[in-house]
Amino acid sequence: MKLIFIRHAEPDYATDSLTQKGFHEANLLANRTKDWFVSQFYCSPLGRAQATAAPTLKAHNVTLTTTFPDLAQDVLYPLDPTKALVYPWLRELHAPLSPHLHPAGKTIPWDFTPEFLQTNPSLFDFKQWSDTPIFEHCDVKNQFEWICNRLDQLLAQHGYIRDEFYYKTTSSDRTSNDFMMYDGHTTTHLQQAPKQEPTLVFFCHLGVMMLMISHLINTSPYAMLHGFFTPPASVTVLSAEERTLGHAYFRIQTIGDTSHLRYANEPVSFYGGFAAPFQW
Question: pTM of whole model > 0.90?
Answer without folding.
Answer: yes
